[in-house]
Amino acid sequence: MDKRQHIAVVEDEATQRQMLLDYLSKQGFRVSGFEAGAGLRRLVERELPDVVLLDVGLPGEDGFAIARWLRERSSKVCIIMVTAATDTVDRVVGLETGADDYIPKPFDPRELLARVKSVLRRAGVSVIPTTAGRIRMGRRVLDLDKRVLVESDGSEETLSATEFDLLKVFAENPNRPLARDWLLETIGHREMEVFDRAMDLRITRIRRKVEKDPAHPEAIRTVRGVGYMFVPSKE
Ligand code: CA
Fold first, then answer.
1. Under CATH, what is the fold of the domain 134-230?
2. Predicted TM-score (pTM) above 0.85
3. Is residue 49 scored above 90 in pLDDT?
């Protein structure tokens, strides 16, 4: 049985599609290419690929519609939208389309590969990176071993299990817009699902603990229409 991870590429431009297929196949993935959503739908009837690279600008059914359809079929499949400069990024990731990530054209294939690996890693239930250590978050430092926030004077603030889980996920996914749904699934607190606001309240509490100015958050930012993003400080 073919154990390679399977990536489906939906791109109407033949040269671009072939370039992606060649590149990803050289990187050790099993690949399938489609010029439109219809081909992908036929594939999904038979088997679910691990990752779908979805061009937004397709003739007929656009990438957003295909992403929504795909997400209804499976919460497991990783969806990466390939966007053109004219596409509105706000719509791309998150609740509305269910995409996991996006990459704007033109892109470096290595950048794409990094995104693919990242979504696959995030999707893997057992892959919890053991990046034991300390990560600066706003005015404090998250200590992953002790599960506390450390102040510059060395004093420690304890965290609830949910707060720690959220901060850990943020620490592992810097500079990436993370959808509320995805955050809920990842930290495995599904009982929160009913209350979208429960997530927002937890973020508010976390911000009070890490931000220099919680009213103007810089570390845990809001991504409108999507969710939140951890932006590491420059120093
Ligand atoms: Ca296109």
1. Arc Repressor Mutant, subunit A (1.10.10)
2. no
3. yes
> What's phi and psi for 83, nearest 5 deg?
-110, 150
- Are 101 and 80 a contacting pair, CB within 8 Å? yes
25-39 tens-digit pLDDT: 999 999 999 999 999
Give the amino acid at 141: V
- CATH architecture under which domain 6-123 falls: 3-Layer(aba) Sandwich (3.40)
Distances (CA, A) of 232 to 21, 140, 174, 189: 34, 11, 7, 25
10 alpha carbon – ligand 1 mean position (Å):
9
Q: Report the chain's mean pLDDT, rounded to a whole number.
A: 85
CA distance 165 to 197: 17
Cα-Cα-Cα-Cα dihedral sign, residues 45, 46, 50, 54 = negative
Predicted local distance difference test score (pLDDT) of residue 192 = 52
Q: Are 64 and 36 in contact (CB under 8 A)?
A: no
| Residues at Cβ < 5 Å from ligand 1 ion | 12, 55, 57
Distance (angstroms) between ligand 1 centre and the Cα of 36 equals 9
Q: Where are the domains of the chain?
A: 6-123, 134-230
How far is the centre of ligand 1, averaged over its atoms, from the C-alpha of 85 (Å)?
12
